[in-house]
Amino acid sequence: MLVDVGFLLDRPAATGSAIGLLKSDLCKESLKDWALESLAADQLLKLSEAVRRNPEVCKIIPPLSHGIKGIDIIRGQSEQLYLIGLLAARLPVLTNAEEKSWFEKLRLWLLVHAYERASNGILLDENLRILCTDLRLAHDSGDSWLALFRRLRVDALGFQGMDYGLMHRASRLLSNKKSEYQLSASEVAALKALERLVKREVAELRVTSQLPPRLYTGGMPNILARPFELDDELFEEADLEDNSARYVEITGAEPDETVICAEVDPKETFARQALSGKTVFLSSAEENQFLPWSWKQCAGQEEHDVRAWVEKSLATQDAKTRLCAAILWVANATGRSVERALEFRVGGRADSEWHLSEDFTQLVRLSPRPQQNSLSKEWESEWILPFAAEQAVRLPDQVGRVLYDVAASFVTIPTLGHLYDAVVGDKPRAVYADRLKEVSPRLNTTMFARSLPMRVFRESKDAILARVVASSPQTGRTGAMSYASWPIATLSRLLNPTQNESEAAGDDLNGMGSLIQIRDDKLREAFSVAAGRVDAAGKGDDFLRFCNFYVAYHVVGLLAYTGVRPVNDSFEQARHFDLEDGFAFVNDKVVDDEHEGRPVPVHRSLIEWAKDDYPRHLRLVASMLRHAAPGLAEAIEELAYAKKKGRLPFFFFLEQTEDGIQWASVSEQSIRELELFDWPLPLNFFRHRLATGLREIGADPEVIDSLLGHSEAGSATHGDLSWRVWQKDMQAVTPALDALFEQTGFRVLPGVELHPNLTRVLH
């Protein structure tokens, strides 16, 4: 296949250069990281390992001299031999070792894409030709191309991370019109070709010369596309946090009949449609309910019997049975099916999926975090609580010993599946069905993926925690899964249930979930400074500035207590406040029938303020604007006296325009522009704070979902079919809300009436 990909039959002298590339240490490590996400990378990894096991190959077929430029090798056929030209070209002459490694890695990345296309019958591609040619020019001392590819550098481990990191940087460069670095037409073409390559868009290249015969007539397996009819009763759907796509899971009677479908735009190209549906796993509506009797998981007695079988089998003399038991323990402990547990890497650096440590004592992964939680150093050092980077599951001595003993006879072990294939060999589904028939004849390898989330839910009664603990890199995260965080001690106890309490340390360390967990001392300081600025504005001579500060301060207080999304005019009308029972109606997310607005409790001090202080403030503002802006003054007076449905939102800003004083909506952007609060935070951080803080105090997770407006798969906490009573739940959670709110140091401030200096400004 490699000969076909590079057309090496046309330039056999370049074969040694291609083999030499696969021999390098960087190639081995990169392909090992990429093989989990790319079948082409996995095939090249096997070839690389074969070359490294047989170093004499490089002596028999030596690489071309580095003194030869790439163009000299392919002269006359550069149109079709673009990949040979790149593989045979020397790397750029650079003093920085990291930069040199980046160019080698980029060349390898293009080879994997070429291999992937060739496996699907596409030997020549215009997008690949453009990128290979331009990268070869960079290698051959093309300074402008060197600069461009330096700017594209990403430090991702996985193949998809490389793909999307490069595409993101290319998109940024193309959209940045104000940059000092002006792109030439050929550089723009290269960046657009990179975007199309990542999106798997094909621009097949036609050449006039005859192509050499292909040596490899096989192919790598592809996902077969087949039409099918969707029955509305068979599937559930869910919105992902970024609203980028809608996914459905259709579950058949057998595990291999389950299909994940993605709703796509029919006007898009097939490549774009295919990209929408890649490797996203969602739980079904039934799984999200954590029903103890669900057919697709082990029942209580079955779980007990499976654990007993594992303990007994680990001590048996049969090597196959011992290994099967050890792998089943790993699957149970990590919330994976047996098949997915076999994909776990052995050794290497931690990434988003579990992998076995090289000494077989623990399983390690990076702590699951929402993708949007990228933080600057300013956040990390000053504003957020410290967080753990990794999670670990300790292997019992017997499990670790079984795996270690099997691995001892191998030089390299890429994955747990390599051990299984060497010792057992048969398909896991059949093997485990046979060995577990004494426990229960209905058990299959996919059921063990539910063991961890079910155990976590039984202990915590927190469905979100159970789902995040058992999540994988391919898990589709809904909004409800993106706000809370949990301390490392809680996670250590859940992932290692047999460890002692003294071993679970670090309650103040954020172990998993949202990184946006703010230090209360910084929050109190920010509210105190903001209150001082409001007071100072009241003593000044800028009437509009004070009014805007006053409104912004109290609106942020409402957001802090309620956790409402900071959309434009979050609290729309005065009539949306129930000033007797102390709650407000908000409609901060209108996307479907599941999100139709909700009531939220409001702190008693803010209710009193909205009932008395704020209307009095509005009446004085209307009086002061009667001459400067009579129409606006009349509308404000109507709002203050609640004479009828107001022409203005309940909270608004005032601004001086060419047409006089006008009102403006209160939005997150307009609040930020006032520079009232000294925090580098988006205002939805209050939602993260409530999701975590209320859990720590002991609030019911379902009630927290209701407060934050989370509803998915038809399971709204206080929906029409729910047995829960909103009023009782809110009475129960109000003390916790009050306690969290009072930790911010927020206090109601006086309005215009106590600032007589301002009353003189407009006269």
CATH topology of the largest domain: hpI Integrase, Chain A
CATH architecture of the largest domain: Orthogonal Bundle
Helix coverage percent: 40-55%
Question: Which spans have pLDDT < 50 for at least 5 consecutive residues?
Answer: 212-260, 267-279
The percent range for strand residues is 5-15%
CATH class of the largest domain: Mainly Alpha
- Using the CA coordinates, give the radius of gyration: 31 Å
Task: Give the overall silhouette.
Answer: flat
Query: How many individual β-strands?
Result: 14
| Protein structure class | alpha+beta
Mean pLDDT: 79
- Give the distance, in angstroms, between the N- and C-terminal Cα atoms: 86 Å
Strand order within the widest beta sheet:
4-5-6-7
Overview of this structure, please?
With 763 residues, this protein is α+β, with helices and mostly antiparallel strands. The chain has 4 domains: 2-198, no CATH class; 235-282, no CATH class; 300-513, Topoisomerase I, Chain A, domain 3, CATH 3.90.15; 520-742, hpI Integrase, Chain A (Orthogonal Bundle). The chain is 47% helix and 7% strand. A 4-stranded mixed sheet has the order 4-5-6-7. Strands 1-2-3 form a 3-stranded antiparallel sheet, with no helix packed on it. Helix 8 (97-119) runs antiparallel to helix 9 (126-139). The radius of gyration is 31 Å and the shape is flat. The termini are far apart. 39% of the residues are buried.
